[in-house]
Amino acid sequence: MAHYAAVLDACVLVPIALADTLLRIAERELYRPLWSDRILAEAADAVLGVHSDIPPERVDKRFALMHETFEDARVEGWEGLETTITLPDPDDRHVVAAALRGRADSIVTANLQHYPIDTLDPLGIQVIHPDSFLLDQLDLAPRIVLDVLREQAANTHHPPPHAHRPRRAPRQSWRARVRRRSWTPDLMRVIAICDLGVTSLQTR
What we know:
The protein has 204 residues and is of the alpha/beta class. It has one domain (5-194). It is 47% helix and 6% strand. The protein is built from ten helices and four strands. Strands 2-1-3-4 form a four-stranded parallel β-sheet, sandwiched between helices. Strand 3 (106-108), helix 6 and strand 4 form a beta-alpha-beta unit. Helix 7 packs across helix 8. The longest helix is centred in the N-terminal third of the chain and has 14 residues, at 37-50.
């Protein structure tokens, strides 16, 4: 099991391609992903807000599969810590509380401004943008990350977001659960940096 643990904020779980990349890398045990039920609930609400045509049960299934694949990712018992944390937006305190309770090394989020360094540093928690996090993983394990990205590229087409294979068994790998993904500009930048030669894919 990976020793480095990172809380994945809701904003990095909403874009399907970015979430897929983060979870594929986690499955290779380069880091341990963490989240709380509240984080996943916020992510599900955001997905439905962006894609109102997607049935809620389909979105629920996506996050249920994450729970099943990463059985030790759910952080519980963080609620009592929430009131001890001061942030610009009190609604973000639950993310830091989950990080503290789960003994996370970092929070991966696109909303860096929501988590001031002077507040998080004394707690021993790093706040890192997903682009920087993925590039750090590339530096640490280039062969594994490149393999993950090539695999994801090979499995990527252009269906509606959140298309999944039917569930086969409760302990299927995350890679086996994922069917096809759309691409984000952030992921395309990482692919370009990795020089994967993927030139035929469009971004959304």
